[in-house]
Design a protein that fits this description.
It comes from Rhodospirillum rubrum (strain ATCC 11170 / ATH 1.1.1 / DSM 467 / LMG 4362 / NCIMB 8255 / S1). By secondary structure, this protein is an all-alpha fold. It has 9 helices and no strands. The chain is globular and about 60 Å long.
Length: 214
């Protein structure tokens, strides 16, 4: 009698997995190392997703952009230099960094509904953009976007953080179209910054005819 083929259990949704971070122990909140261990073999994209959400969701009174941007850059760079690893090789100082529970609960409360909405639109397509060389390019772009998140620009977190969120979701679902949209959002922000910088340079140089976008 032939044995039935084993059923493959689909991976839990990113929203459900991240919501489980609330249960992690820690008097001051779980450390990033504990979070990475909890996220298991999907730790790199899920950690990038959470950090992107933390930068995207407003958290008054805390320099979240600088912290999460720096952490995102380290995680993505670690993935670049150690391709094929399922968990990021975090430096000790970052692995021991606690996530304050107020920040953790605030981010999850605001971000999980958005995450569920985005996940309903994911499906495997254009997978080459989320695998192999495409994956390396995606992590390289995350490093760039994370550096922009860390810059002290008023309201400057939103678009690069959204780019990180979309790229991470695309990697998780092998959805190259979502990765591509994330690249587009990030490049749009870079173009905006370049345009503003050019306009400011012209204004400071005393060019009255300089107009934004020319």
């Amino acid at each position: 009698m032939p044995h039935p083929l084993p059923r493959t259990t689909p991976a839990p949704s990113a929203a459900r997995t991240l919501a489980g971070l609330r249960r992690l122990p820690g008097a001051r909140g779980p450390t990033l190392g504990a979070v990475a261990d909890h996220l298991s073999d999907r730790a790199i994209p899920l950690l990038l997703l959470f950090l992107g959400l933390a930068a995207f969701v407003p958290t008054p009174g805390l320099p979240v952009g600088m912290i999460t941007g720096s952490a995102c850059a380290v995680v993505a760079f670690a993935a670049l230099i150690r391709p094929g690893e399922s968990r990021p090789a975090l430096p000790g100082w970052l692995s021991r960094k606690p996530l304050p529970r107020r920040v953790l609960h605030g981010v999850l409360r605001r971000a999980v509904p958005l995450l569920r909405w985005l996940e309903r639109r994911l499906r495997p397509r254009l997978s080459g953009l989320a695998l192999g060389a495409g994956l390396g390019l995606a992590y390289g772009m995350v490093v760039v976007h994370a550096a922009l998140v860390a810059l002290p620009i008023p309201f400057g977190n939103t678009l690069p953080a959204l780019a990180i969120i979309l790229i991470a979701l695309g990697i998780l679902a092998r959805d190259g179209l979502m990765v591509l949209v994330g690249h587009g959002v990030g490049l749009a922000w870079i173009a905006i910054l370049a345009g503003v910088g050019r306009w400011l340079a012209g204004a400071l140089a005393g060019e009255p005819a300089a107009t934004f976008g020319q």
